[in-house]
Amino acid sequence: MKKIVYIISAGALMLSSCSKWLDVNDNPNTANSTVPAADQRLPSILAQFADAYESGGTRAAHITQQLANVYSGSARNYNLSRWFSDASAANWPWQAWYVNTAVNLKPMEVAAEKVGAYHYIGVGKIMKAWGFGFIADFYGLAPYKDFDKADNITPSFDDAEYIYSQIIPLLDEAIIDLNKTQGPAAPALSKGDTYNGGDVSKWIKLAYGLKARFLSHLNKKSTYNPEAVLEALGKAAKTAAESTVYQYVDDPDVSSDNTDKAALQYVNTSASTRVTQLYINYITNNYTGAPSGNNNMLDPRYALLIPQSQEKDGSFRFTKGVDMSSNIVLSGPASYTYTEKTNSFTNKDSIYIALRESKATNGRVLSTGTWYNHKGSKGLFVTAAEMKFIEAEIRLRKGQKDLALQAYKDGIKIHMELMGVGNQEISRFLNSSSVVQDVGKLTMSHVMIQKYIALSYSPEQWVDMRRMDYCTDANGNYNEQSGIYKGFKRVPHVYTQSYPNVTDWPRRFAMASYELNFNKAQLIKAAPTAELPTYLNEPVWWDKK
Asked: How many CB atoms lie within 10 A of CB 118?
C-alpha cells in the first residue's frame, strides 16, 4: 500500500552529529528528523500502522481458515493456508511496523513536546503500545528496548512477556496525556487524526479497549485478572460510534489499477483468494452445537461477507467454500479466467468465486467482493463489538451466564451496525433461533465463533484461536465435542516439517528475514530454535500453560 510517509532511518538520525552549520540549511518542506510537526507526522504513522496491522490480519486469516487460495506449490498465500510462513510472508508486517511506523513515533513525540501537544503524545504512546503488542503476539519476540537506538544496528530481542510488561503502563500514560489541556500553540488533534477525527474521548476509549484486549490474552497465565479486564471494558467503546474504524478512500472503479489509497484487504486479497467452507459454516450456523430451532434465519451479514458472481441470465450466485479438511487443497481449487467472447469461465472451479471484486468490460459482475475488501472499505481496528465478546467470555468464566448472553448478543448487534445492517433486520435476527436465546445453553464456542466472524481479517482472530487451543482437547488432539472452534482441523496439505505431530498447531509466525540475515546472533540468543521448521509450532509467552 502506497502512502506518503516521513521515514527517518538510523542513518538519517545520525546526521544530527554533523557540523552545526548544516542545521541552518533545514528545508521546512523536506522531511528529516526535526522538520515535520506532530500533525504532519501522525497521518503517515496511522496509515503505515494500518498497513502493518491489516497485512498481519490478511496473513492470519489464511492460518485461521477464513481464507483459502487457489492451488500453487509455492505461492505465499497457499503456503500460509498450510500454516507455513516463510520470509516472503513474514517480512512485510515487520517492515511496515519498524521501518515505516515505529521509527517516526519518537520524532513525533519530540515535536509535540515543543508545543505542548499532549494529545499527540498520548496518541503516539497508544500506537507504540498497540504496535509492539501486535508484533509480540504475531512473532513472539521483537526488539523493544533497543529498537530506536540510532547507533545500534543489531538490537537485542525482547520476549513477549517483557513487551507486555511495558505496553500496559504505556497505555496508562497515554490516557493521562490525552486528559491534559493542550498548549496554546499545539495543533488540534483533528489536523492529523485519520482514525478518530480528533475525538480525544474515542482515543481514550481505544486505550482502555487495547488494555482489555491485551489483558484478555493472558487467560493461560497465573497473572490473568478478569476483574482488571472488566474494569478496562467499563471505560472502553460501548457503541459502534465509539469504535476505532479506519475509512479507506479510493476510486471505486474496480477496473482501475490504482490502489494508492485502496483498503488494505482489497490490496492484500488478490484474484487468487477464496473463502473457506469453515467460514461459511460459521456464518450459517452449520457447526456442531450451533444454535438452531423452528425460527432459524439466515445471518444478514452473509450477503456482505460472502462473494457472489453474476450468471449469464443476470442472476447472482454465492461462492462455494473451499473445504480445507478435504483433499481438494492438495491440487486445487484451480485458477480460472473469464472469456467475454464466449461469456463463460475456463473451468468448473469458477464455483469458487474470487474474493477480490471485479467486473468484465461487458458489464458482467465476476465477483461482488465482500464488505471488507472493496477498494473503499473500512478497517475495523478496535470495536465495541470486540469489547462485548471479551466481556461475554469473562462472564462465562465467572458463571454469570445472564450477563454473558447479553454481551454475546450485543457483540453481534454492534458488528452488524458497523457493517450497516438495518435495525429491523438486526432485531429479527437477534430474536431468531439462529442466536442462542436460553441462558443455560450459551457456550464458549458460541461466543468465540461469533467473535471470529466479527474479527474477520483481524490478527486478533488468530490470537483467540491460539489461546483457546483451536478445537482440541487437553492433549492437543482434535476434539469436536470439547474443542472451541468446531470444525477447525489440521489441513491435508499441512507443512509437515513444521507440524510433524497431530498435536502440533500454528503458534507463531516465522521471523522476518532481515533479522535472520543481519541480526542473527541477537535473534538466536533470544530464540535458539528460530531457524528450525518446528519453530512455528512453539507457543508465544501468553500461549504457554
From this structure: 21
Place of cell 484451480: 334
Distance CA(351)–CA(336), nearest Å, equals 10
Interval 291-309: pLDDT, tens: 999 999 999 999 999 999 9
**pLDDT band, residue 28 (cuts 50/70/90):** low
**What pLDDT, in 10s, does the model give residues 144-187?**
999 988 889 999 999 999 999 999 999 999 999 999 999 999 99
**Which residues contact residue 210 at a Cβ distance below 8 angstroms, ignoring those fewer than 6 apart?**
126, 129, 130, 133, 171, 382
Rounded to whole angstroms, the Cα distance separating 162 from 146 reads 13
Cβ-based neighbours of 292, under 8 Å, separated by 6 or more: 285, 433, 434
The CB density around residue 185, as the number of other CB atoms within 10 Å, is 9
Distances (CA, A) of 336 to 75, 199, 306, 346: 16, 46, 18, 6
Classify residue 542 as left (phi > 0), alpha (psi -120 to 50) or beta.
Answer: alpha
Distance CA 264, CA 202 (A): 23
How far is the first Cα of the chain from the last one, in angstroms, to the nearest whole number?
38
Spell 472-490 as b/e; 16+ CB within 10 A means b: beeeeebbeeebbbbbbbb
How is residue 48 written as a grid cell? 503505515
Nearest to 239 by CA among 410, 428, 457, 447: 410
Residue 362, judged by CB atoms within 10 A of its CB (0-12, 13-18, 19+), counts as exposed
Whether the ω angle into residue 307 lies within 30 degrees of 0, i.e. cis, is no
pLDDT band at 270 (very low <50, low <70, confident <90, very high): confident
Residue 324: what pLDDT? 98
Question: Does residue 245 sit in helix, strand or coil?
Answer: strand
pLDDT at 24 over 80: no
Q: C-alpha grid cell for residue 397?
A: 468464566
Q: What is the DSSP letter of 327?
A: G
Taking a C-beta distance cutoff of 8 angstroms, is the pair 484, 497 a contact? Answer: no
Q: What is the structure's pLDDT at 40?
A: 97
Distance CA 54, CA 64 (A): 15
What is this structure's pTM?
Answer: 0.93
Report yes or no: 316 and 368 within 8 Å, Cβ to Cβ. yes
